Amino acid sequence: MHRFLSEDWIKAYMEEWNKNEKLIADLKDFSASIKYYVEGREDQAVKLLVEKGVAKSASKANSHKYDFELWASQENWKKLATGEIGPKAAMLTKRLKFKGSMITAMRYMSAFEESLRMMSKVPTSWDL
User: Which of the four pLDDT bands, split at 50, 70 and 90, describes residue 127?
Assistant: First the structure.
């Protein structure tokens, strides 16, 4: 069991990402740094570095600029991870906040949605 968005959680998420051959294939032309955090806890953010669809590293985030940032309340992250709300609906209703190129995000929307649904595969403790 991994505490949600902890360093060990993001590493377990990276393993799940790299097991997903369809996700990697859909993102073969995509490389980016992605920062994830719970709203109000940006100091505890984690990052994932993706190169040509493959997650290359996962760790605590720092003050660098990231290509994409995703954040939500703990409750909304849990709803996303468990499938109670879908990624598109979460973004449209601003339950999931996003910073980065919207054009790029739209281009890879199905892969982006898959990456968020995949969060449910990581054994997660929601106690922050």
Answer: confident
* 81 within some domain: yes
Domain count, the chain: 1
Is the sign of the CA dihedral 119, 67, 91, 24 positive or negative?
negative
Q: How far apart are CA 84 and CA 27, in angstroms?
A: 25
* Beta carbons within 10 angstroms of residue 101's beta carbon: 11
Indicate whether 116 belongs to any domain. yes
Structure token digits, residue 62 = 């720092």
Phi then psi for 12, rounded to 5 degrees?
A: -65, -35
Q: What is the CATH classification number for the domain harbouring 62?
A: 3.30.1050.10
127 domain residue, yes or no? no
Q: What's the pLDDT tens digit per position in 30-41?
A: 999 999 999 999
